[in-house]
Amino acid sequence: MKIKKTIALFVMLFSLICALSVSFAVSAEDLTEGIFTYTVTDDKATVTKIDYKNLDEIRIPETLGGYEVTAIARWAMFDETYEFGDDTVTAVYIPKTVTSLNIEAFEYADVRYQIVDPENPNYTSDEEGVIYDKQMTELIKAPTCLDCETYTVPDGVTKINDSAFSICPFIKNVVLPNSVTQIVGQAFFNAKSLESVNIPEGVTSIGQMCFASCTSLKNVSLPSTLTEIPNSAFTECYALEKIVIPEGVTSLSTYAFENDTSLKYVYLPSTLTEIRSGALGNIPATDICYGGSEEDWSKISIDTRPYYGDRPVVVDTATIHYNISPDTYQSIDFINENDILSVYGTGAIPSSSENQWHYWDPDKQDVTTLIIDGIDTIGANAFSDFPSLVAVIITSGDITIEPDAFVNCPKLENVIIFGNSQFESTSFVSCAEQMRIYENSKTTHDFSLSSTAINVVPFTYDGSVLFFSDSVKLSSYEFFDTLAAFCLQYDNIEKVKFENLTFEDMELYYIPEGGASLKTIEGNTLKNGEIYPTVSTSADGAITFNTLVNGMADGSITHFYLVATDENHSNINDTEISVADTIREFFGRALRWIVTLLNKLFTLISKIRK
What we know:
Blueprint: H1 2-28, E1 31-33, E2 36-41, E3 44-50, E4 57-59, E5 63-64, E6 67-72, E7 88-94, E8 100-101, E9 110-116, E10 123-125, E11 131-133, E12 138-141, E13 150-152, E14 159-160, E15 173-175, E16 182-183, E17 196-198, E18 205-206, E19 219-221, E20 228-229, E21 242-244, E22 251-252, E23 265-268, E24 274-275, E25 287-290, H2 294-298, E26 301-302, E27 319-321, H3 326-330, E28 332-337, E29 340-345, E30 348-349, H4 352-355, E31 369-373, E32 377-378, E33 391-394, E34 398-401, E35 406-407, E36 414-417, E37 420-423, E38 428-429, E39 434-439, E40 453-461, E41 465-474, H5 476-489, E42 495-503, E43 509-510, E44 519-520, E45 525-534, H6 545-554, E46 561-565, H7 579-609
Parallel strand pairs: 3-6, 4-7, 6-8, 7-9, 12-14, 13-15, 14-16, 15-17, 16-18, 17-19, 20-22, 21-23, 22-24, 23-25, 24-26, 25-27, 29-31, 30-32, 31-33, 32-34, 33-36, 34-37, 35-38, 36-39, 39-40, 41-42
Antiparallel strand pairs: 1-2, 2-3, 5-6, 10-11, 11-12, 28-29, 40-41, 42-45, 43-44, 45-46
Helix pairs in contact: 5-7, 6-7
């Protein structure tokens, strides 16, 4: 009898286990209702899949199958056939019942807004559709298609969540408040349009792969409160050209800046104690600036093992420059495009003999034009040995050019200084045999010790007329090269006046009032005269030089000629010249070169001003 009771009890227990197993299997299986797939656990529904194709908006219900929806799972809107741009969902509405939201729920879908029910106890959203915790201290997730180029995180937020802005293709700039202290994980991973980020003071850590694959990222400002650059934090940031690692950072982790193929300017702090494998791997930098001494550098633990096959660690091959101040390094930026080098910022470009400042050495062989803006001092040997340098344009307000600042630049012929300047005869040594320096005031300089014959040409600008005093002899390309620089500096040059102008390779013409023919000026020298551009055969068609220069740069003006007036009309010959032949002759000699130069200048200047 006891055996039968035992067997009966066992059967009942087995049946109960089977029933519970069946019940559990039913609760964990995928269920569907409309476009939603969900599971049920403990009488609560979790959305696991949303069939969002061809839908403009998604409203997640408060209940599914009679169960309260409390969670949205990872990749709920993921589609293995997804390609960006296939379907853009204007908005996803999240009900008040959802208390658990996976940060990657909507990541692989084109969602423009995420709207949280105001009564939700755990989450809230702002007008841009960015989700925060209820207290607005943690930024949880921005919509993939965040509908703005610049997003400002509100003050009071202390944490930027893992993957918060990852795979956001349109955002270009994120402004972080000073309240942020932590940026977690892959917060900006693969945000391909992100161009700049300023990480505020107080941030003590950034996550691994935090800015990895931000392929448009150009400018990064790191705070002094950081102590480590973690694994792959900035890997494959192809547009990043310059990085200043702040004092206080002790470690560059594995692949920190690996494969940043534009990274030429690197500053490392004196506090650095280790550089791990590939931290500066496959970058083009040939020079590294270091805040400590040579002895300090020798104490850094550097992993010199090749990685990914035979890729070497850049610090093995780069030239290390010691005792560089981070403040000096941060205050000056460089752009080198189309053989035009721009150096801009604040403060001084130090003497290269003091701290080996030549960050531009790898590119200087082909530089033809140098633009300097905002700098107040150019140190000795700062720009030595530029074999192709022809022109220097200095737009700073006040500047001191130290002796030997420009040494052995054999083609340097033209220097234009728009501000007040101080320099000596030895500031330009072993340059072209003949040099012309344009200044905005008639300052006396003693060039008796210079090996170069220097002609100083003072100029003034009254808001419409640009006037050059003293004698000026120019070729056509020099005239337009110089004029382009002045047009970039001054907004509305209507006429250019010369005390004495001679063109070396271009005929100078005069159009009598009301006439349709061109007259040559005898000797090709204009005395106390003025020149303005025209697109017709009469003065009525006159345009400003700025319009001319801009039009040549963008191709909207292809036919023009210069109209000259001369107070000594007896010097004007009566020989008529075909306008078409004149234009053809002039353009044949000068226009191609001029247009190429202007395009280069305008492209570079526009980038600097941005």
